[in-house]
Amino acid sequence: MNETLQDTVTRICSSFSGDRSRLMDVVQAVHDECGHVPRPAMEMIAQELGISRVEVESLISFYSFYTDQPQGQVVIRLCNDIVDRMSGMDRVAQAFSAELGIGFGQTTPDGTISLMYTPCIGMSDQGPAALINDVVVTNLSSDSAREIVQELKLHLDPTRLIKHLGDGNNAHELIQAMVNNNIRLKGDMLFSVINRGEALNKALNISPMEVIRAVKTARLRGRGGAGFPAGMKWEYTRAAKGDKKYVMCNADEGEPGTFKDRVLLTELPDRVFAGMTIAGYAIGAEEGILYLRQEYAYLKEFLENVLQKRRGDGLLGQNVMGKEGFNFNIRIQMGAGAYVCGEETALISSCEGLRGDPKNRPPFPAQKGYLGYPTIVNNVETLCCVTKILELGPASFNEQGTERSAGTKLLSISGDCKLPGIYEVPLGIELSEVLKMAGAEDAIAVQVGGASGQMVAPEDFNRHICFDDLSTGGSIMVFGAQRNILEIVHTFMDFFVEESCGYCTPCRVGNQLLRQRLELIMEGKGEPADLENLEELCQTVKTCSRCGLGQTSPNPILSTLKHFRPVYEAMVQEEKDGFQPAFDLRESLAVSERIIGRQSVHVHS
Amino acid sequence: MNQPVTFFIDGQVIQGQPGQTILEAAQDARVYIPRLCYREGLSNFGACRVCTVLVNDKPVAACTTPITEGMMIENDTERVQNYRKDLIDMLFVEGNHFCMFCEKSGNCELQALAYRFRIPAPKYLFQFPQREIDASHPDIFIDRNRCILCGRCVRASKELDGKNVFQFVGRGTEKRIAVNADQLSDTDAVVTDQAMDACPVGAILKKHIGYTIPVGKRVYDHQPIGADIEDSAVASDT
Ligand SMILES: Cc1cc2nc3c(=O)[nH]c(=O)nc-3n(C[C@H](O)[C@H](O)[C@H](O)COP(=O)(O)O)c2cc1C
Ligand code: SF4
Ligand code: FES
Fold first, then answer.
1. Fewest Cβ atoms nearer than 10 Å: which of A91, A397, A459, A593?
2. Given 3-state DSSP classes, what are the helix, strand and coil percentages for chain B, each rounded to the nearest 5?
């Protein structure tokens, strides 16, 4: 038995040339073959890659898709983001649990099926949704959950659960998913006719500096959330000294309520890869990496095939499109379930085969990124925009949008609205207009920008979606009158506590304390002063955290404290007896009373 | 000789060497910036955030940020000190710290910072986590209850001892220090490793030498942490 495990590990490690930086791939491969990474395998991997066992353990224990414990051959991961909760996740959870006879976090006694929760899987427009191994099941109900379990018990083959195919390329033979694109509004930029090769050809006919100039003239800002000017990032990276340079495409799409990159990868992969190739030409890179979240593993084979075709057609490889001396290739790096890996320096760590800890800055990735080489990280949509800018010229890009927020933006709208899905709108559009399109006029609150964004109240629905006002990487979550604001915020805090990498104090501890404070308020154990304390703690976490996660995680609390304060005020009260309401004297004494074997006279008299 | 870099901390003009971090350059100029995960001789880590300063109003970790010409740094102001107090509070409630029973008392940097910041008791709720101890090694004791995840042992083992005894496992609130085996006694750790001196708190303790330095004669028993760096021996600035 051990002999075979050793053989497996040796084979896998040598298929990655014993390269320590490919530890993610090695672990993934062992995981795929064994269903988990047995502890003896950690030692073997360490030996083969020349590292220590605890480093292997360190990586495995970081990512939620990896485990060192045996689990079922089938793993059901039910998405527990807020929108899925609102569309009936609890009933689905109960059905799964009852039919399997196990709770969440458990495996059936026969060891075949495991059940667990997972944060947003990018299907908020078709929830409740779950991943069953790589297979995505959507629009779940308690009935369909029961049927799924009954079927799985018969064949343990998730692919046989696919009964119908989704729209567009979701029906492609290499995807075969039940997922729907739900594209509701096509703009001229992103969802327009594809002229494969045209943009790249135009780019290769001008100098790299001219390509960068075109991107700058278009005033393209990053679509991943931060809005950093793309041309400027490229210019820095081009100017940085380095024997090699790298282009990374961020397809981690972990921000709850965001699912537009999934649709771009499904429908316009050529445009994404063209954008990466153009970026490679512009900065002087020969290698690109697409970092694909594990939740989108069902797209991997399709994307590999698109890459293969591009290689065959001379759009990738040596002397791309006949351009002497320009070589460029792209590989796909799978993530393994960690929201923080969408943060660009954590993404780089992950690609290097490390825990997904963000890195200290400076140095910035433009100076020292992947393996120490100058690197750009751009969002999927940003790179699609690049392709269109080269194809149609910068002027046609920035004729839409505003001065500081040029172009169109994909929004992924979900929650209490009639038409959830993807909308391509010009930046600068009023939120109210977007809500009208989606059939969400009754909204009482809208979370713009995902869990790390802000909660907007109706009096602010006339604000604009753009980088300088309501900024979003795409996520718009709509809440109707029946929703409880504090519960929504609490769900977001659960998410941040779960997803904090734990490197720095304010985020690791602060988010936990914020959630606890919030819970006490929700239980009616808060006092008015707690609202100020909560706000203060938010500021410390925002100010002192090391990366964007902790710097934004207090946003849902801060924005609701500001715009929905009465909701909090209704829950807190001044205590008459002088005790803090959160302090339970009886409970505090219970343990010592048990030890001494009698009750305290003062409390019980 | 490199051109010195001129910058300002709380209005004071300071000159540092190019490539120095804010924390190092300040220290050379006898300005103390509180710190926990920083340790001279180890790579900079940036985890505890106790060294947070404001540079032109933007918060950064002084231990990982290089100085640049003309930088305006806010260090010893109420706002910045309050952030630091909050962070120290967080570290106390996150773990299980029992100063009065701890062998490290008086030599503990976390405790010393609490004294310097005049924190009688943390303002946040204790989290009472369940954490494991490892007493397997004949000469070394690990108590994760007191660990503040500063990573000094990890770096010292790697960078100074040329070993890899310690690493982090888990993430978020589940993050823990782990050893390169099932337990410490199965690793190549020895008590003379520099990693065993790197712990700022009582999470890594040496056996057999408890209380050989009596309470009252310990590093921070007579002067606050940081006083050795500052000009004046008394730090009553917080
Ligand atoms: C916690 C966290 C998660 C992030 N997740 C993503 C993501 O999933 N996709 C993305 O493109 N950017 C994400 N970002 C932003 C990236 O750090 C980075 O700014 C972006 O990829 C740069 O590309 P752009 O300039 O093209 O937007 C995230 C940032 C943080 C702090
Ligand atoms: S803020 Fe700190 S703990 Fe949170 S994800 Fe970033 S580095 Fe990790
Ligand atoms: S000393 Fe700078 S972050 Fe810890």
1. A459
2. 25, 15, 60
